[in-house]
Design brief:
Layout: H1 2-20, E1 27-33, E2 36-42, H2 47-64, H3 72-78, E3 86-87, H4 90-105, H5 115-121, H6 133-141, E4 148-151, E5 156-159, H7 172-186, E6 192-196, E7 200-204, E8 213-218, E9 228-234, E10 237-243, E11 248-251, E12 254-257, E13 260-261, E14 266-267, E15 272-279, H8 284-309, E16 314-322, E17 325-333, H9 339-342, E18 350-352
Parallel strand pairs: 17-18
Antiparallel strand pairs: 1-2, 2-6, 3-5, 4-5, 6-7, 7-10, 8-9, 10-15, 11-12, 13-14, 15-16, 16-17
Helix pairs in contact: 2-7, 7-8
The protein binds adenosine monophosphate (AMP) and magnesium ion (MG).
């Protein structure tokens, strides 16, 4: 009898919770993948399967997009200039296809063949150094998206010149976000959040508080990665950020960071500290990742003009600095809302630039 009462009580509590709409505990996992801390959180649907499959998928993309022995990119590098086509996995091929499309659109500001330059500077590794002019000239001479050839019918690629190499650091996280979106959809997850190091994120539906997810725009000069200059309340949208604060070293008072102007082979130096892009719809993860890197390289003026004509629906924010004040400059394309209408909780140290 006692047991029966206990069971009845449990059923009543469950019914009450359902009636008052208390959300079920989210299912969350965190791991270090793609060289960063990734978190996948799902609130509903087959959430355990979605999160576990999502983690396995990230491991797979991490391995595919790596430069490890036997990887597609390493085989491409080893056969660069010998005329041989290299069979490429469908995922890496898709990333290369999108990279080439945007390299063309951006006139090479976005260029995954920037690999020799990335390698030479070694930013974020213990070998990071300012290279000599001769080294830079040599590395730069092996950069050029026109020298990466793709054969869609055979899902293969080749680099036409020895010394070339591909680096997918500017697109792989965003591409992985799109894959996670498909996995969430398959498992009926409507509410959740995925974060790849905070620089590539996707907000599904609502947070457990039944409100849009609150995504912080990182303060570009704070050591605390959780100090924000503003908050983006998001629902079913991707957000990506690129900044000179993510990977860098300082020498003689100069900050050398990891986002390169493929023309100079040097860290892009346009006065922009960070760029954030928000987009919705298919491929939003890849698109925002490509756009943040591109807009960072182009700088505010060129970037704003480019965004208007690039054919995407995206909201962008450029962050600049003058003394202790951060300047926010917004740019929009297509039907996307203006950043001023999206961001909340703007820090006192930040100011919107007049249009
Ligand atoms: P993100 O943080 O998305 O802006 O990506 C930066 C990473 O992309 C760097 O660590 C480099 O590996 C690579 N990268 C740097 N500059 C470029 C560029 N202009 N085009 C494409 N990839 C780049
Ligand atoms: Mg990027």
């Amino acid at each position: 009898m006692k047991r029966l009462f206990g069971m009845l009580f449990a059923v009543m509590v469950a019914c009450l919770c359902a009636a008052c709409g208390a959300p079920p505990e989210p299912y969350t996992k965190t791991a270090v993948i793609m060289d960063t801390v990734v978190t996948i959180e799902a609130e509903d649907g087959e959430r355990e399967q979605a999160v576990d499959e999502g983690m396995a998928y990230l491991q797979k993309i991490d391995a595919l997009a790596s430069q490890n022995a036997g990887s597609d990119l390493e085989l491409l590098r080893l056969s660069a200039g010998n005329g041989q086509w290299v069979a490429i996995s469908p995922e890496v091929f898709e990333m290369l296809e999108m990279s080439q499309e945007w390299a063309k659109k951006t006139d090479g500001a976005f260029d995954v063949t920037v690999g020799p330059v990335v390698w030479l500077w070694g930013i974020g590794t213990e070998y990071a150094k300012v290279p000599s002019e001769a080294e830079l000239a040599e590395a730069r001479s092996h950069v050029g998206w026109q020298k990466l050839e793709l054969d869609k019918s055979a899902t293969s690629a080749r680099l036409t010149e020895a010394g070339m190499r591909i680096h997918l650091g500017a697109i792989a996280k965003g591409y992985a976000i799109d894959g996670l979106c498909a996995i969430f959809k398959k498992h009926g997850v409507k509410n959740g959040l995925v974060s790849l190091g905070g620089s590539s994120m996707y907000a599904f539906g609502k947070s457990p508080k039944r409100k849009p997810w609150r995504i912080g725009i990182r303060h570009p000069r704070s050591d605390d990665a959780k100090e924000y200059l503003a908050v983006a309340p998001l629902t079913d949208a991707a957000l990506s950020s690129s900044g000179d604060y993510e990977r860098y070293f300082e020498q003689d008072g100069v900050r050398y960071h990891h986002i390169f102007d493929p023309v100079t082979g040097r860290p892009a130096d346009t006065g922009v500290l960070g760029v954030t892009v928000i987009a919705t719809g298919g491929h939003a993860g890849t698109l925002t990742d490509i756009l943040t890197t591109t807009l960072f390289v182009m700088g505010e003026e060129k970037g704003k003009a480019f965004l208007k004509t690039c054919g995407a629906d995206a909201s962008a924010l450029f962050i600049m600095q003058e003394g202790d004040t951060f300047h926010f400059c917004a740019a929009t394309s297509g039907d996307a809302p203006a950043m001023q209408d999206v961001l909340t909780d703007v820090a006192e140290s930040a100011q919107w630039e007049a249009e």
